[in-house]
Amino acid sequence: MQRQEKIESVAALKTLLSENSNIFLIQFSKVDVPSITLLRQKVREKKARYVVAKNTLISLAVDGTEMAVLRDHLQGPTALVVNAGDPVEVAKVLADFNKDKPEFVFKGGFVEHRPATGAQLKSLASMPSKPELIAKVLYLMKSPIQRLVYVLSAPPQQLVQALNAISEKK
Predict the structure, then answer these.
(1) Is 84 helix (H, G, I), strand (E, B) or coil?
(2) Over the stretch 136-148, which tens digit does the pLDDT of each residue have?
(3) What residues does 106 pair with on adjacent strands?
(4) How do the domains of the chain map onto residue ranges?
(5) Using one digit for the tens of pLDDT, what is the confidence trace for 14-72?
(6) pLDDT, tens digit, 9 for 90 and up, residues 56-71
(7) Which SS3 state, helix, strand or coil, does residue 102 take?
(8) Are 109 and 70 in contact (CB under 8 A)?
C-alpha cells in the first residue's frame, strides 16, 4: 500500500469512526470467507458495516481521539463493526455468529461513545433491544392507569347495579 493510499485509508477510517456511536472490534482468525460474507449480510440488515483494516491504520485513525483506548485491542486480525443505531441488535447478530464460530471473539469497542470490554459487548447481546424496552416501559406505565380507572369506575357501577336491583323488585 502506497503512502497516499494509507493516508486516504486513515481519513476514511476516521470518518467512519466519527460518524458511528457504536464500534465493535472483532478477532476473526480461522473463520472462513463464506461465513464472513454471510455475517456481513446480517450486519448490513441491522444498518451496520463490517470493515477489515490493518491494525496500524486503525491505530492512526483513533490517535488523538477518545477512541485511543482501542489501541490496546489491536493485536491479530481485527475487523470493525460500526453502526449509529441500536447497539443491542448488532451485538445479538455478532453473538449468534460467535456461538457457531468460537474463533470469532469480541475484543472491545465503544458503545454510545463509551469504552467497552469484550465481555461487556458480549453481555450486551443478552439485553432487550430499544423497541422491546420501550414496549415494556409503556406496558408498565399503562398498567397502573388501567387499574386506577377500574377502581374509580367500580363505585358508580355498584350504584347502578343496586338501583337496577331495586327497580326490578318493584
Answers:
(1) coil
(2) 888 877 777 777 6
(3) 26
(4) 3-127, 128-170
(5) 998 888 889 999 998 888 899 999 999 999 999 999 999 898 999 998 888 888 888 88
(6) 999 998 888 888 888 8
(7) coil
(8) yes
79 contacts 26 by C-beta, under 8 angstroms: yes
**Domain 3-127 class?**
alpha beta
Nine-digit cell at 135?
414496549
What is the C-alpha separation between 109 and 143, in angstroms, rounded?
38
As given in the structure block, the three cell numbers for residue 66 are 477518545
The whole-angstrom separation of Cα 48 and Cα 25 is: 13
Angle at 96 between CA 90 and CA 99, to 5 degrees: 145
User: Which residue in the block uniquely carries the three cell numbers 357501577?
Assistant: 157
Q: Is the pTM of this model over 0.70?
A: yes
Nearest to 78 by CA among 30, 27, 24, 39: 27
- Single-letter code of the amino acid located at 28: F
Contact yes or no for 115/108 (Cβ under 8 A)? yes
Residue with cell 470469532: 104
Instruction: Give residues with Cβ within 8 angstroms of 145, minimum separation 6.
Output: none
- Which three three-digit cell numbers place residue 100? 457457531
Locate 140 and state its grid cell: 408498565
